[in-house]
Fold this protein.
Amino acid sequence: MSCETFAAMQQSIIEGAPDIAAELARHALSSGIAPLDAINNGYVAGMQNVGEQFARHQMFLPDMMASAEAMRAAMAVLEPELTRSGAQRTMAGVVILGTTNGDIHEIGKILVGTMLTANGFRVHDLGVDVPAELFATKAREFAADIVGISALLTTTMRNQKTVIEAIEKSGLRRSVKIMVGGAPVTRAWAEQIGADGYAKDAMSAVAMARELMRARQHVPLAVPV
Ligand code: HCB
């Protein structure tokens, strides 16, 4: 894969151009490019640039929304390819995923869900702006092994702790492992709030989810997905 194509993918996100982003994604697939390489080296790198420009006041909210739209267009092309391998595997575990209360960032969470699905986990994505109690209710309903909590704002990070408290209150804390992530989240923060694991990106989330399944001393169900 040429550096120019990755650069073009980055540019499609920076310019908020969904059609171009999707076209480049299709081109990547037809050229035999691993979808995850396209995401990480192309589109996510573009998103990083957008975040930096926004922080420097060189980009504004509508620009950031257009970039998010372009990212979603690329993901819509790449996601089926990413998830395909998961369909043939045995079930690795059940994961509840959501973005905390007050936070509508979803791209990273969707990517984590896609990669978990591709690696045999059964994922229930609760969406964005999810109240703490709903994480607990759904964890019980779906007999979750892992709850993954995403937060992208420094102001909503603390709601990850509220989710953990809600899970404790519901009596599920011993049977459910908790994994946190999102741009401002760190390993130190995860430890501070009593989470079981932290993941910096979607691939690490898969590795962490596997580690948490082992830590549960739970024998994964050999049930086809
Ligand atoms: Co938004 N926003 N935003 N935003 N946004 C950020 C997050 C800032 C850092 C930009 C900046 O200032 N540099 C900033 C937060 C600053 C802070 O709190 N310190 C910010 C702000 C301020 C805001 C608003 C408040 C702006 C405003 O209204 N004035 C507003 C908040 C709205 C709200 O939530 N209540 C807002 C809105 C938006 C949108 C709607 C325009 C759009 C989101 C669209 C959508 O998701 N549908 C948006 C976007 C796109 C961003 C940036 C540019 C990109 C986020 C993103 O998608 N990254 C972001 C800048 C940045 O993060 N660099 C900016 C790409 C994904 C792949 O990375 O980190 O989300 P990720 O996920 C990774 C990783 O963290 C991990 O794996 C993922 C995959 O690799 N992971 C997990 C994530 N969750 C996990 C859970 C697990 O269990 C495990 C791992």
Observations:
- The pocket of 5-hydroxybenzimidazolylcobamide is lined by residues 44, 47-48, 50-51, 54-55, 61, 64-65, 67-68, 102-109, 111-112, 148-150, 152-155, 179-184, 199, 201-202, 205 (CB under 6 Å).
- The chain is about 55% helix and 10% strand.
